[in-house]
Amino acid sequence: MTRAGQDKAPAPEMAAPRHRGNRWGRSEQARQAVLEAADDLLSERGFAGVTIEGIAAAAGVAKQTIYRWWSSKTDILMDALLQDAAEELTPGDHGDLREDLSDHVSRVAAFLTRSDAGAVCRALIGQAQHDPAFAMEFRARFLTEQRERDRLPFDRAIARGQIPASTDVPSDLDELLGPVYYRALVTGEPIDRQFTDHLVDHYLRRLAR
Amino acid sequence: MTRAGQDKAPAPEMAAPRHRGNRWGRSEQARQAVLEAADDLLSERGFAGVTIEGIAAAAGVAKQTIYRWWSSKTDILMDALLQDAAEELTPGDHGDLREDLSDHVSRVAAFLTRSDAGAVCRALIGQAQHDPAFAMEFRARFLTEQRERDRLPFDRAIARGQIPASTDVPSDLDELLGPVYYRALVTGEPIDRQFTDHLVDHYLRRLAR
Amino acid sequence: MTRAGQDKAPAPEMAAPRHRGNRWGRSEQARQAVLEAADDLLSERGFAGVTIEGIAAAAGVAKQTIYRWWSSKTDILMDALLQDAAEELTPGDHGDLREDLSDHVSRVAAFLTRSDAGAVCRALIGQAQHDPAFAMEFRARFLTEQRERDRLPFDRAIARGQIPASTDVPSDLDELLGPVYYRALVTGEPIDRQFTDHLVDHYLRRLAR
Amino acid sequence: MTRAGQDKAPAPEMAAPRHRGNRWGRSEQARQAVLEAADDLLSERGFAGVTIEGIAAAAGVAKQTIYRWWSSKTDILMDALLQDAAEELTPGDHGDLREDLSDHVSRVAAFLTRSDAGAVCRALIGQAQHDPAFAMEFRARFLTEQRERDRLPFDRAIARGQIPASTDVPSDLDELLGPVYYRALVTGEPIDRQFTDHLVDHYLRRLAR
DNA sequence: TATTAACCGAGACGGTACGTCGAGTCTTACG
DNA sequence: CGTAAGACTCGACGTACCGTCTCGGTTAATA
Fold first, then answer.
1. End-to-end CA distance of chain A
2. Which bases of chain F are under 7 A from a protein CB atom?
3. Which residues fall within 8 angstroms of residue C107, CB to CB, at 6 or more apart?
């Protein structure tokens, strides 16, 4: 759908090589500048302040270059999200389901409510409410991957024999994370560690019957 | 904040009288036409297809008339939502917490995923992700009221002595409704009765320890 | 074809009245500013320097206002030409064909090669070479009128009995004015009084057999 | 000024040899393809439809190759004109001034109003109205040569003693050809043989006093 | 025989202007 | 006083070409 590249520069902290009129491909320099400009504009001026013209100006890039590689501003933000989200949202392995979940759920809460990438994520979920086609793209490009990461603690617990293999993980994920997203997206209520730990506690107590 | 009027229809099911230059107040006819046009445009052309100009044209109303009474297209949709949501989302009283909750949670799910007013609601939640000021307005004008309705089953159960008065109702509401909103807003997964009943069941089982 | 108005402000040297958000019609103020800006840009930066954006900026007018009333930059220049050309190109009446012609032909030469309006005229003739549809419009809106003016000396001479009523005026006009246009448009040769007087002289000598 | 090559075709009617990477010189194949593509685009889509990108695409040539040899689209059209015009516009020698002129003037008329190369010529004259620098180039590269051809009948008549050596040929040319160009460029009036013959007749009658 | 200079197609790049859409403001005539 | 009408300024949209820049590939004169 979108030709946006996901690959990163082999060594991300190295400066992107100067673009030199290239037959084989796009300017990594321009790509990074665009993603960063989009991110900056979102946090400084809000979603309405993110415009293709604004990004182009801030990134020192021609509009046409943006349209060559991205189909819309949300497509750009999606790339920015994919580049940043994975590491912030990959659950660690503490060898224990409660600890893994407690850690991950509170990490998701912090991501959604406090991080820059989380702001991008919320903006895209917002856009998904306005545009069904984008909603599908969001799910295909981000959510599917994220759900894979979210379920890792469960998969490890199953492997350990801590919970039965028959566990309906997707459904349980909805119950655990739903309230977090609900607060982040709808009520705006702050999400503290106590709340997330209660969620985990209720879930584990239910498992234990 | 907004000058939108909510009331005034002398006899709501009667056709509004043709407005003929009124010295003493706004045209109820124009108000209804605007709200309906906004609703129609949203369902037919999506959120981006809702424009002030489009609404004015569809409603046979001057742009200035819209700007006189509403501050933005989301303000209009808010009025439309408030007009429609209350009755769809007021929980009935079956004399039993499980039944009340089961009914209400599934009703919320249906509202969000299948009704026209629910589409308006999702669009506004989407907009809230893009605009913090609007998020506050959404919470003040719709969400507070809705949360009052949502908690009615709990209040009645407390009055009946079915659950302790110390119940942290807001928090429990988040746990019950969060997964529903999460599916509706984020994953797009369909929400069937089985899923909502599981939510209620898990909640009640936890209460019973 | 174009909705551009030709009417002038009733008293042209009076400042156009301040535009005051008008139900019945366009802003005369904006109209004049656009025509003048187009003229200025043409003489200062050449035809390629005349852009809709440039005119809008110079006239302090929105692009949309230009597109509302004119279809292209040549349409604007046409209006500017029509507003200026008539007086510069209306032949005077000296009671004698030779004098009338001598005066008029040299006036046409001066117009084409030295006046600002003549520069507009040459630019439009240039555009007519590039765009057959515009060529037709040019002929309908300017040339027909101009040919009426050009033939006035002949009509008066016929009325006076100085030349026969059977004179093929259009054809004679081509012979008299053609060389002037040819020099102005093609060779760029300067056109002095001697050249135009020779043209008139040759024409009159031919008449006299 | 322009690097456009005029020569080099070893045998012009032979198909140009396939270019296969050449150290010493440009690809005749590319050159011809560009000129033809420019011609085609002009006749099919008008002057505005002639773009460097369009020519490159139509000719199967890289933009850079065009920019290497020509400075602008008008520079290309100039080459195309020079390649085609000479033969169409060289007056024949019938041994008689009237016949030579009659033939040549009507040939010029046909060229301007009916031939493809004439369309190119008119387009360039049009461009000359928009761009004084180009006007000079047009005169230096095409018009000077063409004027040499135009005067041939006069030179031959002088050599024959048919007209005096003191004849002001350039001025007479303006009088003879001016009306033809005027009709072709300005009025759009068709130019038939009767009109051109009248021009010649009037000229010759004047000579004869 | 291998090198290498000159030209080629390709296509990404930073720009400018295009023509369109909608936002939000303003003024008027009417009821 | 509220309304329909509609012209206004402004900002962004997405597109088309501009002219510049490398790139890798192809050939033929030279080394």
1. 46
2. 1-29
3. C88, C89, C91
